[in-house]
Amino acid sequence: MKLKKRIVLAYSGGLDTSIILKWLQENYNAEIICYTADIGQEINKKKIITNAKKLGVKSIIIKDLKNIFVKDYVFPMLRGHAIYEGVYLLGTSIARPLIAKDQIRIAKKYKAYAVSHGSTGKGNDQIRFELGYHFFGPKIKIIAPWRIWKLNSRSDLIKYAKEHKIAIPKDKKGAPPFSVDDNLFHTSTEGKVLENPKNSAPEIVFQRTVSPEKAPRKASFVTIRFKNGDPFEVNGKKLGPAKLLEKLNQLAGKNGIGRVDLVENRFLGIKSRGVYETPGGTLLIKAHRAIESVTLDKETMHKKDNIMSRYAELIYNGYWYSKERFNLQKIVDLKRNKVNGSVKLKLYKGNVIIVSRMTSGKAYSMKKVSFEENKSFNKKNVEKFINFHKKKLRS
After folding, report:
1. Which of 6, 12, 16, 93 is flagged as catalytic?
2. 120 and 108 in contact (C-beta within 8 Å)?
3. Active-site option among 59, 154, 179, 309
4. Are residues 274 and 341 in the same domain?
5. In what side-by-side order are the strands of the sheet with 30-38?
6. 179 is catalytic
């Protein structure tokens, strides 16, 4: 007996991917394997398994990738101080390459001929997923239902779900819900009242941060220690990558830190308004810049700053696995072995204030910077320096 072909679906267990699962079963003569990457999102494993089994799926894979996500994706990105269009810390963008990579690994393991995802036809995620698929599995077919099926609206999806007895969460009846994506690094919310940029974001959209107004009146303090450019200790306690980020999310979230409301330019050219929460990441990027300021030389720091915008854009557009991003990462990580020490932060009502920086490195010289007279800096050479540079004014 000839075995059925197999398709690996990126499956969340929610309404949209359950509809996609049923649609794949109806339109492709293939066994569907449901794959869920646990990267710290709010996840109900029992629900995922139950919903998939109701639709006849036998193979349901849930892979814990939290530590890999933070160590091999979030930390390298934070070392590059990547911020898209001045404010976005790329929480969704950095998650997709890892999911795509592991989904292809599963596809190869089960000899699947295709992979599928639930990204819409207007968004960035379809590009991020598929560039990852192409990099790791160029011969594996990609099925993107939102670009080919005839379900063109939320009401179409609800109707399809009812016809096929797929459970519909109460908040998804009637008007479309907020579109929410979350992982250990961030939460993003789009849609509904947020689509009109004149509307303020209702407090209900914020899931991991309290409003600055409701944050404690007393400041909190956190000390983050770095080794080779990566954080490994919080308030004197060594933590693994995922636990460390989880701890910082809690500390920052209760102090109203990490909220961003922006209108961004998608890769496809569409403008999109969203609300993002990146509490722990906000602390880390602030602390990382602070520790670099006392451990790295000017030239190295400025090289990094010069490439940051392009580096962030590559991640946003889905080019994490591109040769250009790999090359920029080498610049990002120049002398990261020198980035050692600790930074103390004050957290107060949405604000992050640097209290102190401590390192055993020699980049910062107390003698040279001191206003007290000393012999470590020859001021007589300053005039020569100015005379050299004034020639460039008219060159």
Report:
1. 16
2. no
3. 179
4. yes
5. 60-64, 30-38, 5-10, 114-116, 141-143
6. yes
The reply to whether 230 belongs to the active site is no
Q: Is 125 a catalytic residue?
A: yes
- Any catalytic annotation for residue 394? no
Q: Does position 371 have pLDDT exceeding 90, yes or no?
A: no
Measured CA to CA, the distance from residue 89 to residue 281 in angstroms comes to 8
State the residue range of the domain holding 63.
5-75+95-175
Single out the residue in 117, 146, 175 at which a domain terminates.
175
| Residue 67: strand pairing partners | none
Q: Which of 102, 125, 181, 182 is catalytic?
A: 125
Helix ranges, the chain (H): 15-27, 45-54, 66-69, 75-79, 95-109, 125-136, 145-148, 154-163, 241-253, 279-293, 298-317, 323-332, 366-369, 381-390
- Positive or negative: CA dihedral 81, 82, 87, 91: negative
Model pTM score: 0.92
Note the pLDDT tens digit of each residue in 120-157.
888 899 999 999 999 999 999 999 999 999 998 878 98
Q: What is the mean pLDDT of residues 350-369?
A: 89
